[in-house]
Amino acid sequence: MDGNIEVHLAVAAEPRHSPDEAGAPISRIVAEVAAQMPGERITLGELSDALGDRAFGLLILLMLLFSLLPGVASIFGFGVLILGIQMGLGRRTPKFPGFIARVSIRRTDLLRVAGSSSKWLKKVERYVKPRPGFFTSPLGDRIFGWLTAYVALMLILPGPGTNGPPAFGNLVMALGLVEHDTKVMGWGMALTIAGCAFATGVLIVVCWLGVKALHWMF
């Protein structure tokens, strides 16, 4: 792996605003962080360092969005898996191994994926606000982490239609984590569990059919 990921999108980035603004959408936070980094490309390690206390939620959200694009699910899926395991183990700040930290994304692609995501995330963001509770507690973070790790496995393993349903629930869950909203995190966890159950069922059926086909052939 050369550490460079080329992603081609056709959605214009949104204007830059301060991430400190109350209820700032994901695109604004990412645009502010990107503005602080010189150069055409931004590594995941640099992005992790710059995002501060929102790093886990925003990194997972952005990598999930990139992983839904054709051809890069496994690369970003491994990154999501590492972050999920770290959260599950109780880490407070993310740390990528070198080969993941060196993966770079073009600045324009990062802004575009954040901008395009906000168009549908805004529908969820209208209902998101800081609401402390069980799912924003340290135990809730650990549950989030292990669910995220399972979603990452669904992204890495090949299977028809197994990426979208788990990733959608994880995206909602990550948005709740970023905004410290226990209610949205709870809904996201429910959607994630349902999506993972669907994806696991599909993979089990695919494996069963594969075994049957091998028995028929030999």
Task: Describe the protein.
- The chain is mainly alpha-helical and 218 residues long.
- The protein has one domain (4-217).
- It has helices at 26-35, 44-50, 55-67, 73-88, 98-101, 107-125, 138-156, 164-178, 182-217; strands at 4-5, 41-43, 104-106.
- It has a 3-stranded mixed beta sheet.
- Helix 3 runs antiparallel to helix 4 (73-88).
- The N and C termini lie far apart (37 Å).
- Mean pLDDT is 79; it is low at 5-23.
Task: Summarize the SSE layout with pairings.
Layout: E1 4-5, H1 26-35, E2 41-43, H2 44-50, H3 55-67, H4 73-88, H5 98-101, E3 104-106, H6 107-125, H7 138-156, H8 164-178, H9 182-217
Parallel strand pairs: 1-3
Antiparallel strand pairs: 2-3
Task: Provide the descriptors you would attach to this structure in a database record.
218 residues, single chain, mainly alpha, 64% helix, three-stranded mixed sheet
The overall pLDDT, averaged over residues, is 79
Q: What order do the helices and strands follow?
A: EHEHHHHEHHHH
Domain unit count: 1
Summing up helix and strand content along with how strands pair, one would put the structural category as mainly alpha
Radius of gyration: 17 Å
Distance linking N and C termini: 37 Å
The percent range for strand residues is under 5%
Major pleated sheet: 3 strands, mixed
Q: Which segments are poorly predicted (pLDDT under 50) over 5 or more consecutive residues? A: 5-23
Which geometry do the CA atoms define?
globular
Quaternary state of this entry equals single chain
Q: Which strand order does the major sheet show?
A: 1-3-2
Q: Counting H and I runs of at least 4 residues, what is the number of helices?
A: 9
Number of strands: 3
Fraction of residues in helix:
55-70%
